[in-house]
Amino acid sequence: MTETAPTPLFGGGTLTRARPLPVLRRALADTWRSTLGWALGLTAVLLLYLPLYPSMASSQMTDVINTLPPQLIRTIGYSDLTSGAGYAQATFFGLIGFALLTIAGVSWGSSAIAGAEETGRLELTLAHGVSRVQYGVESALAIIVRLLVLVGYAHLLVTVLNRPSKLGLDSGNLVAAGAALLGLSLVTAGVALASGAVSGRRMVAAAAGAIVAALSYVLNAVGNQTPDLGWLRRFSPYNRAFGHRPLVEGADWAGLGLLAGFSLLAVAVAVAALRRRDVLG
User: Fold this and answer.
1) Averaged pLDDT in 10-residue chunks for the chain of 281 residues
2) 14 DSSP assignment
3) In sequence order, which residues have a C-beta less than 8 Å from that of residue 142 and are 6 or more positions away?
4) Rounded to 5, what percent of the chain is helix, strand, coil?
5) Which of 17, 183, 205, 241 has the fewest beta carbons closer than 10 A?
6) Inter-residue contact 232 to 243 (CB < 8 Å)
7) DSSP 8-class letter at 15
8) Measuring CA to CA, which residue among 123, 139, 119, 239 is closest to residue 183?
């Protein structure tokens, strides 16, 4: 069978029509260095924090934590810092890992449609037989794959460090925590993707994703202060991910389902907006 002639994709490289998922393949090929850089960042964070746990589990550290204001402890999630699960949650899953994956997801989400439109790559790609629905769906898949790779790598590294760092993490609960982190990062990335498709502006998309991430964390933190404000946690994707304490209690399937549903809704909004917008200007 003779393949059709290749055509330019994204302003460089080629697109052979017989090959499946061309947008996904090209996005992964173009961003592998970025993915590697984020993986190295996760490596540095995990190697820095997790091996410190044995010294943090001492009675002296407990006394130091008890001197902090209770409101501050509840805000930053240090109420269970002396247990392995509590320490891993407070330092990595619920704080630095969340921040790094949010930044990565929002960056990729804002670049996928809005960034491509601003640089002219989107117009060029659509002009060579790629439908708008295909472009939107495959762009979302590329983000999912990259975030899944990062979360999977972090899970592997935490598993390796678990015994030497004396964390005592359960392997099943560790998978649940990874799923929660992935679901939360997909929500913010999805918001950035959808906002970029609606507005066509990368800065707007990045700001929307960052605002959702910040509000999610803030609503959870404020809701933890007093029972009267606990209702705020219901509106926080962060609480849907970690309010169940997956490293201690395992997976919260209802919370994971809500995160997955919201992410799929964001992708649907992005695809629908891309179909209706005039990207040719």
Assistant:
1) 42 53 93 95 96 77 66 66 88 95 97 94 88 95 98 97 95 97 98 96 97 95 86 94 94 96 98 84 56
2) E
3) 23, 24, 27, 28, 31, 108, 112
4) 75, 0, 20
5) 17
6) no
7) E
8) 239
